[in-house]
Design a protein that fits this description.
heterodimer, A: alpha+beta, Protocatechuate 3,4-Dioxygenase, subunit A, five-stranded mixed beta sheet, four-stranded antiparallel beta sheet, 4 helices, about 10% helix, about 20% strand, B: five-stranded mixed beta sheet
Chain lengths: ~270, ~190
Amino acid sequence: MATVPTVAPERAPAPDTVPTQADMSAAIARRHRELAALGDSAPATAVDFAPYRSSLLRHPTKNPRLADPEAVELHSPAFGEHDVAGVEADLTAHHTGEPQGERMTVTGTLMDGRGRPLRSQLVEVWQANASGRYVHQRDRHAAPLDPHFTGAGRIITDDQGRYSFTTIKPGAYPWRNHANAWRPAHIHFSVFGRAFLQRLVTQMYFPGDPMFPLDPIYNSIHRQADRDRLVAAYDHDANVPEFSIAYRFDIVVDGPDATWFERDGEPA
Amino acid sequence: MSASDVSLAPTPHQTVGPFFAFGLEYPDMHQVAHPHSDGAITLSGRLLDGAGAPVPDGVIEIFSATAGGEIPRERGSLRRDGLRFTGFGRAFTDDDGRYLFWTTEPAPTAAGGAAFFAVGVFARGLSARLATRIYVPGDADALASDPLLASLDQDEAATLTAVRTAEGHLVHDIRLQGERETVFLVF
């Protein structure tokens, strides 16, 4: 009779066959060299990035096809202030008490590739609490939940394309990609541009994190200059004295929208 | 130099990760059209990995024209009132990899064109959003003359075209990898 495991597989101790950090770091370096050899044709983020082990069966193996965008792809769902309540921009205000952690504000401008601000666009954010625990039934990290923190927020950008939200700094957390694998602290961002093609989901990191070189997800972006674009800047002058520290994270979405074609005199 | 002459490097994509549900979920997000409204149909299918196994932690988003072929400009995708058609929907895949939308069938936005849903795919393990289309079946001439479909072989085109059930609903699986891998797009 087979032995019945006493812990769920995702909590079981790592068997000897699980790759070490040294294995992973070598695999990251190898893949970065391969991607660099492709030059400009390599996309900023590689979906085919084996060190991120969950990607193995989940990335397309064929090259994406180049298509001419059509009208519906060059426009985007319209959002307005009434889509989001103001309190959704304060992740510390959803409960009866104050969450544990380092209180901070994150501000930035959402732009297109021409530097034009994207007004009235939806920004969604979600993150772990200060201990590195997510409010999610599948998060088994043995760190405490915070009864005063959920960690999800929404903002509609203002007339200058700016967003701002108040939260606490998330903690790093372990995951089971390889032995002793930890994610650098990050906040998930989901943003809409002026075109459905410009849709972007990404992660914002904090300056100087020592886990950067170790993390397969952060390193699925093979160029250092591109990775740097995901690191927020500490913005001392924007601190609210005696209250919170500030980070700035500007976001640039990629790809055309209907106005690019109108400007060039082509039909959208 | 005016702002429109600036060329800024884009912010790169990262995976949506495993714990997106509490950040991205909102009421009736998959109900682009109210299920009891005129012309409401379902668009559903499965998100599958390279082994043919369901992807239970994926997000499918659609944006499509109205039944009259107009680009929706209505606000309110996050505050569904059951009346306005915003064209945008979001669905999480379930334990069987299944997604489901209530919507109306889009019409072509240009005469003689082929109607389709613009689609975005996100998942744990997927490092960047994938863009694809789900074409509405039926108008053989429009589908045959569509520039994208015409550039694909028959099997590839089939990965972009929904199947209509006897009840008039649309069914379409998205395969991230392997045999019958869905055709994904860059623009």
